[in-house]
Amino acid sequence: MSRIGLTAFETLAVYSVLVIALISLVYAWLLRRNVMAEGTGTDAMVRIWTAIKEGADAYLGQQARTILPFIGVLVFVLFASVWIVPPTAEAVHMFGANARIMIAVGRAGAFILGAVFSLLVGQLGMRMAVQGNIRVAAASMHDFGDALRIAYRSGTITGMLTDGLGLLGGTTIFILFGSAAPDVLLGFGFGGTLLAMFMRVGGGIYTKAADVGADLVGKMEEGLEEDDPRNAAVIADLVGDNVGDCAGMAADIFESYEVTIVSTLILGLALMSITGNVYWIVFPLLVRAIGVISSIIGTFSVPVWERTVAKGNAWHSMEIAYEVSSAITISLSALLALLYIRSHDPVNWWQPAVMVSVGVIFNVIVNRVTAYFTATDKPPVQEIARSTRFGPATTILSGLAEGYESSTWSVLLIGAALMVSVLVYGHLGANYIIYGAALIGIGWLTHAGNLVAMDSFGPISDNANGIGEMASMPDHARKIMTDLDAVGNTTKAITKGVAIGSAVIAAVSLFGAFITDIGVVQRAMVAAGELAPEAIIKGINVADPRVFVGLLIGGGIPLLFGALLVKAVARAANGMVAVVRKEFDVPGVREGKVLPDYKKAVAISTDAAQRELLPVGIIVVLVPIVVGFLLKAEALGGFLAGVILSGQLLAVFMSNAGGAWDNAKKLVEEGHFGGKGSDAHKASIVGDTVGDPLKDTAGPALNPLIKVINLISLIIAPIVVRQTTTSVGVWIVMLVLIAAMGWAVLRSKRPADYGVEA
């Protein structure tokens, strides 16, 4: 650590971050012991739970086997990417003549580490959610507070894994590689982000294929309840809640958490080289450590607030806990800046603390805006529910309008947050402004533990409710689980909004790192006489036709991505509907005397999810490479800007419109506007069915898409910027890559009957 000028105090502080990361993991282990000690209920409950558990385990095992070969290929690509360009001055300073091999091994190893950590967070989190749901169902027979405690703490385990592993990975790489860490951290971020995208895509397709098929036949045609055991798709639907909402969201938040660390350390090391101060890199690590401590305090206190202040209100108790965590983080970050940064920089010591606070505060504001557009007690959802009286068309139109409006307010809020960095750091220059934006991302996800706990609470409560219905549990227990499930719908919608906002903030930070990295390489080229000084890229000129073309391509990619995923859900839902209908034709199923074959529906969802992983991975990885090598570095920057803007608008629209349709249906099912079985109810089911693949598949999957593309662009930037001309060999390779993307699109669109007749 002495090579980058850390004092004894700073060295101790960095190592203390590792200790706090380990504390987070120990806390997760203790919570697991606490949850696993709870009872599992009756034999009927255990039989249903076993089917859910086996389905979830089988899917994740098959998913891992599908994506691991793809990851293996990319390990070698990342290793080779370091050999194409000369090592940075920082790498040479750290490792001398061995710089290239050390960075190559480090980047490939960090890629594996990021992928493994993301996989662990998703898989362990999902398995813990499955263990929690039956225990929540069992506890609901006795006490609301116990059921809430188990559900929330089961989700908290995933949250603390997110905190602990994200902080552990980034800090360890920084300790090992010092000022050369940026090149290695890119591999860490890319590994985590790519795995998150795969888990988001696969889990999203799985869960919505089952959900849409179950609703269209079970509710629309047969008039059954949500989790009626006569519905052949009900187990697949419950499995999907875990692989989509638990595994997918956990991996998504984890990669956002680590990418914000990666981008902040990259930008902080750049500022360290300018100013000579190391607090640029030490401060964000310490803030994240503060966030772990505040998350532990906040999450542990939820049952306390439920018993005392909230008085049985589960959502209010989570709100209080989150606000407590926020207050602790803001206060301690300000104190850290006062006592630590001020001793190094008496003039500009306060700005970093302000940026972290802005991230925390705007996170809470986005929470409130998302809740406004998706909660049942707010005007947007009530307006959609009123529209159901006039049929599916007006229901869908109302939901579209609310989704579009919510997306506008969200992008304005993100813009306002970034403008604070301009106001605070504007007098110091562009590098400081982008660093401020990265610190906003640090603050935004400082309480990842709370966020993941709130999100996982949703599917855990949903599964518990499903077990309760299928096992015919007592009415008082069903009432408790239904109340928790309703709160879970709100928490899921809110955390999706936060995840999207964090993706954009992280992408802006990576975009700034992209521009910074290009400048570093080009200045080195100028010093070597390979480039004229006036050719250095200082910004992105949209008036340049090539840049504008890049912008247009970038704007179109999220739409293509979303289209492929929605089509995948639609195809799988067709097969699911056919299977469920055929099972109802089996004598005794409709009367409840014979159980349907649940395995057929599970197989359809599993197959549909696996089909899309490879094509999507090929498209996302290759597009920025083709744009960069054919249109050059500045156009690649325009491409990134297009992806960020289009991806953010589309993701928020999809997430909030789908969430609003879902809760409008629940409002009708509570007895408003005709209640269950009415024409309004059928219209609300259509709206919910349309929104399902938007809010739980395509929309959330755009979060990792944005960051995967930004990270790939950042990795190839030093190579692209040195390619001042396009050789015949490069053209041939690019044409092959374009053909590969065309094949991927065609493969993704290929019809599938999933073993049933059309």
Account of the 3D structure:
The protein is an all-alpha fold and 758 residues long. It has one domain. It has 19 helices and no strands. α4 packs antiparallel against α7, α6 packs antiparallel against α7 and α10 crosses α15. The termini are far apart. The model has no long low-confidence stretch (mean pLDDT 85).
Topology (SSEs and partners):
Blueprint: H1 8-36, H2 43-81, H3 89-95, H4 99-139, H5 144-177, H6 181-221, H7 234-275, H8 279-307, H9 314-344, H10 351-374, H11 379-387, H12 392-425, H13 430-444, H14 448-470, H15 475-527, H16 545-584, H17 598-669, H18 679-722, H19 728-749
Mean pLDDT: 85
Q: For the CA atoms, what is the radius of gyration? A: 25 Å
- Global geometry: globular
Proportion of helical residues: over 70%
Write down the domain tally. 1
- Based on secondary structure, the structural category is mainly alpha
Q: What's the helix-strand series?
A: HHHHHHHHHHHHHHHHHHH
Low-confidence stretches: none
Strand percentage: under 5%
Biggest sheet descriptor: none
- Compute the number of strand runs: 0
Gap from first CA to last CA: 64 Å
With helices defined by DSSP (H or I, 4 residues minimum), what is the helix count? Answer: 19
Features:
758 residues; mainly alpha; globular
Describe the structure concisely for a colleague.
This protein has 758 residues and is mostly helical. 83% of the residues lie in helices and 0% in strands.
